[in-house]
Design brief:
This protein has about 375 residues and is of the alpha+beta class. The protein has 2 domains: about 5-200 and about 375-380, Ribosomal Protein S5, domain 2 (2-Layer Sandwich); about 205-370, GHMP kinase, C-terminal domain (Alpha-Beta Plaits, 2-Layer Sandwich), CATH 3.30.70. The protein is built from 11 helices and 13 strands. Helix 4 runs antiparallel to helix 5 and helix 6 (about 215-235) crosses helix 8. The longest helix has 25 residues, at about 255-280. The protein is globular, with a radius of gyration of 21 Å. The relative contact order is 0.18. Bound molecules: alpha-D-galactopyranose. Alpha-D-galactopyranose binds next to helix 5.
Length: about 375
């Protein structure tokens, strides 16, 4: 049994003197390629990681939702009244999902339980999406209603946009809702169609946390969104997804320099993401790695969302050419994590080499996770619908 499953189950038994009716989990994510493309209706290629939020719970007849967070050592009663937004921040994500479910004509019933997670908070590995989807899974198991992954992802995204107030795209919630073990998921962020693509044979995905955190991520993120919308308007399309590389080249001169750079990143990143999925289908780790390297360059020079720490750790990773196929920043940027594709049998040696290199150039110890692709939100104990 997974350590966190044991932990939430033991705490549930202690508090309620009974076995939980359901144990659910929902994972964090790392994006292999396709960055900042989701809010441009484009393509992304993330995988769900083996770090997740877990909940052990049982239904309540009176409609109340009572949750204990082991990570914060706090209890919260979850309701969706505007004044309850002052609840502890972790509880706001659960409230937001309840609020959003109701807005979407679901009528979830109550439950009580214990939650805990091991997705690092604030590192860019989508601990919020994991919490939202774990909450959605909890509501979906007690009510019960059928688990429709894209629908639950949209409901969770709405919770984050409108209840919590973070203007994210759909990628994080989709991969946490719909991830498949051993695979990354090619997601068309316009139709929400997904295709599971296997990791190339004998490769490992390694997450490199720079440990740098920047406060201004959300204003820079919103600014990028606006620049992309501007570019789409000039091209006369609904979103930059509708601009191909050849069309971009012909009409690029119509855009001012900044808008041109932002749009060039999105247009080329969409193409790289589709090529990366093809490389994965044919097991071509070398090509996938090259596309990841090119993605980093584009995020650094055109989209301008890297920072010195991300550039340093990516360079450290790319220097391990005998072990590493490619590396890039991952997530929103401005700090947080990079991701590398490496030879599986050398993953540990790679992690040691990057640790030494990054520490030498930055004076900071990185946090490195060799991770595997896990299942998306699921009911681990109890009957799923
Ligand atoms: C954050 C957002 C996602 C996506 C990425 C950038 O993780 O939550 O929706 O936009 O940044 O690719």
């Amino acid at each position: 049994m997974a350590a966190l499953q044991e932990k939430v189950t033991a705490e549930f038994q202690k508090r309620f003197g009974a076995e939980p009716t359901f144990v659910v989990r929902a994972p964090g994510r790392v994006n292999l390629i396709g960055e900042h493309t989701d809010y441009n209706d484009g393509f992304v290629l993330p995988m769900a990681i083996d770090r997740a939020v877990w909940a052990a719970l049982r239904p309540r007849d009176d409609g109340r939702v009572l949750v204990h967070s082991l990570d914060f050592a706090q209890d919260a009663e979850i309701d969706a009244l505007p004044e309850s937004k002052v609840a502890p921040i972790w509880a706001q994500y659960v409230q937001g999902v309840l609020w959003s479910l109701r807005k979407n004509a679901y009528h979830p019933t109550g439950w009580e339980g214990v939650i805990a997670g091991d997705v690092p908070v604030g590192a860019g590995l989508s601990s919020s999406a994991a919490l939202e989807l774990a909450a959605a899974r909890a509501f979906a198991s007690v009510t019960p209603f059928t688990w429709d992954a894209p629908k639950m992802a949209l409901i969770s995204q709405r919770a984050e946009n409108e209840w919590v107030g973070v203007n994210c795209g759909i990628m994080d919630q989709m991969i946490s809702a719909a991830g498949e073990a051993g695979h990354a998921l090619l997601i068309d962020c316009r139709s929400l169609a997904t295709e599971a693509v296997p990791l190339p044979p004998d490769t490992s995905v390694v997450i490199l946390d720079t440990m740098s955190r920047r406060g201004l991520v959300s204003s820079a993120y919103n600014e990028r969104r606006q620049q992309c919308e501007n570019a789409a308007r000039i091209f006369g399309v609904k979103a930059l997804r509708d601009v191909s590389v050849p069309i971009f080249k012909v009409r690029a001169h119509e855009l001012d320099e900044i808008t041109r750079k932002r749009a060039r990143h999105i247009v080329t990143e969409n193409e790289r993401t589709l090529q990366a999925a093809q490389a994965m289908r044919s097991g071509d780790a070398v090509l996938l790695g090259q596309l990841m390297n090119a993605s980093h360059e584009s995020l650094r020079d055109d989209f301008e969302v890297t920072n010195a720490a991300l550039n340093a750790i990516v360079q450290c990773a790319q220097q391990q050419a005998a072990m590493c196929y490619g590396a890039r920043m991952t997530g929103a940027g401005f700090g947080g994590c990079a991701v590398a594709l490496v030879k599986a049998e050398q993953a540990k040696a790679f992690a040691d080499a990057v640790t030494a290199c990054y520490e030498a150039v930055s004076g900071i110890m990185p946090n490195i996770y060799i991770c595997s692709a896990s299942q998306g939100a699921q009911v681990v104990v109890g009957e799923s619908w």
